[in-house]
Structure prediction request, 329 residues.
Amino acid sequence: METIIKKIDDESIAEAKEILLNGGLIGMPTETVYGLAAVGTDSEAVKKIYEVKGRPSDNPLIAHVHKNYDINKLVYVSHDYVYKLMESYMPGPLTLVFDSKGVICKEAVCGGETLAVRMPSHKGCQKLLAAVDMPIVAPSANLSKHTSPVTAMHVYNDLNGKIPLILDGGKCAGGIESTVLDVTGKVPRILRAGLITREMVERIVGACEIAEHKEGDRVRSPGVKYRHYRPRCETALFAENELDKANRLYDEQIAAGKRPYIMCADYLDEHFKGKNVLKLGNTGEEIASNLYDKLLEGETEADIIIAIAMPREDGVYLGIMNRLRKSCG
Ligand code: TXA
Ligand code: MG
Prediction:
């Protein structure tokens, strides 16, 4: 199969709709990362998602809907705080986990009783979702365990030959996957940290828990247990007070004839003068936005990416550090 990249516009959206309604898959932009999309009620199409990605069959998918879609068709909303959250942060990089009404096929939810729902804010994606007017399930459009794609070209590099069409909506502004928030209980619980932070949820709801994933626990968001986001090269991760160690490893790699790259926030750049550096930016939002792009750029050049951890883990930095540990730790 030939994979074609088309700029997202009315014509390519009509083509994408045709493919989706006929049981096919497409690559679609969102404001977080690119998704691999199928119609959520089509079992055969959803099975293809798992095949194409090599995704474990116990890891459920998120249903994406347009901003005027009535989510009561898909799920039970059991707590009033949910409406306040939706009003504040949807459309946007927030996924809510509800008790499901069973409309989405069982393959997409891995036989589970809950359904994750999200309304992307990316304009082109909204247009596509409105045109199809059905829930579209979509995991990140990478091969399982690889880094999530933030450009159409990243999707192409992983899925060329496996899907007919990738809609190009530019580089994803958010850069890391949506926050996954369990809203089935009285207090919302973050299952996967992202750009909608604990602090932002607390501001609206008052309280917000963070799910801890300990060895042996029943995992509520199966995706977080897998080692993923990994670039295709060696990696190392050092704390911000271990810059000397990072420099030593870099020098050892050079001495061994290897091509090392440092990956760090811009303000640390001066500690790595004359070295190869993948610069992530200065603010949390910039760093999130650049993280996967730099990992994917780095893996094409580097034998090893030596990453420097963030000095904090509040706000957006929780989601960033979670990905940095999984990709480089
Ligand atoms: O930003 C995003 O969320 C992107 C874009 C494409 O929308 N999608 C994405 O999908 O990251 P994926 O499949 O790569 O990650 C979905 C995460 C996984 O950790 C999965 O376990 C969790 O959401 N998840 C999905 N359905 C769930 C459910 N019913 N209960 C708990 N966790 C769920
Ligand atoms: Mg993913």
Observations:
- The two ends are 36 Å apart (CA to CA).
- The mean pLDDT is 95.
